[in-house]
Specification:
Elements lengths: L3 H19 L4 E3 L8 E3 L2 E3 L14 E4 L9 E4 L4 E5 L4 E6 L2 E2 L9 E8 L7 H6 L1 H4 L17 E7 L2 E8 L10 E3 L3 E2 L2 H8 L7 E4 L2 H8 L2 E3 L5 E3 L2 H22 L1
Parallel strand pairs: 5-14, 8-12, 11-13
Antiparallel strand pairs: 1-4, 2-3, 4-7, 5-6, 6-7, 9-10, 9-14, 10-11, 15-16
Length: 255
């Protein structure tokens, strides 16, 4: 019996080590340092302010239950999340800004090309609909820190046609989590660089419908600032309080 005990102990230790190694965290968010100042292609990208990174907004490696193949980009405009599907039921999750009502991306495609610090010029339709937003860019703008496309742009194609939709960085961090663009999908510059480093031209892009989003993400709502948050009783109550406080502040300032 004494001779058997060391062997049993060794076997038990291996089993416990294997069990511990098999455990994978459901969510592994990056630290705030990942959103600090970075230099890219000779340009300095400012840090993302903490107020734009509430709980759940930072990119994270998460468990993934969707049916898309590894390597697929999945856009969920309802929860304002973008996923890059990986092997083993995992994915990178990013918070995104989306288009205003009526302009939101509804169909997928594939990444036809990828540009670093892309130049940009608004379409005629964008200038007609939102002259206050895009009029100053009518003649086009070169790539750089003033370009609305930010540090990277993934150009969405269907067949051989450029759809004019982009997944891109932004010079407006406050827009992430909101529905405020002319239709493209925005990420923090730090996030679009991270995503672009893992994809290539030809990468498939899928767009979730509402039913699929509800099944996988649950219902979402806007908070008082227009940011997407889970639709919970607590968030509903917070919205009512914030709206009441805003109305009271507006009334006080007008007196």
């Amino acid at each position: 019996m004494p001779a058997i005990l060391p062997r049993l102990t060794a076997i038990l230790s291996l089993v416990l080590l294997a069990a511990c190694g098999a455990k994978t965290p459901q969510t592994a968010a990056v630290s705030a340092a990942e959103y600090g100042l970075i230099e890219d292609s000779g340009l300095v990208i400012a840090p993302v302010e903490a107020r734009f990174l509430p709980d759940g907004a930072a990119r994270a490696e998460v468990a993934y239950a969707g049916g898309e193949a590894p390597g697929t980009i999945v856009v969920d405009t309802h929860s304002r999340r973008l996923y890059l599907v990986m092997e083993g039921g995992r994915a990178w999750r990013y918070t995104i800004g989306i288009g205003r009502e009526g302009t939101t991306l509804k169909r997928g495609g594939y990444i036809g090309r990828i540009e670093t610090w892309p130049a940009w010029q608004p379409t005629g339709n964008m200038l007609r609909k939102y002259p206050e937003l895009y009029g100053r860019y009518a003649g086009g703008t070169p790539g750089g820190l003033e370009s609305p496309l930010g540090a990277r742009a993934l150009y969405l194609y269907r067949g051989s046609r450029d759809t004019n939709y982009r997944i891109h960085g932004t010079i407006d961090d406050a827009s992430i989590g909101r529905a405020s663009s002319a239709g493209c999908i925005r990420l923090f510059n730090q996030d679009i660089i991270h995503l672009t480093n893992m994809v290539t031209s030809g990468t498939s892009v899928a767009v979730r419908g509402l039913d699929e989003s509800l099944a996988l993400e649950g219902p979402w709502m806007n908070d008082v600032n227009g940011n997407a948050v889970p639709d919970t009783p607590a968030n509903r109550a917070a919205l009512e309080r914030d709206l009441a406080a805003r109305a009271e502040a507006a009334g006080t300032s007008s007196n």
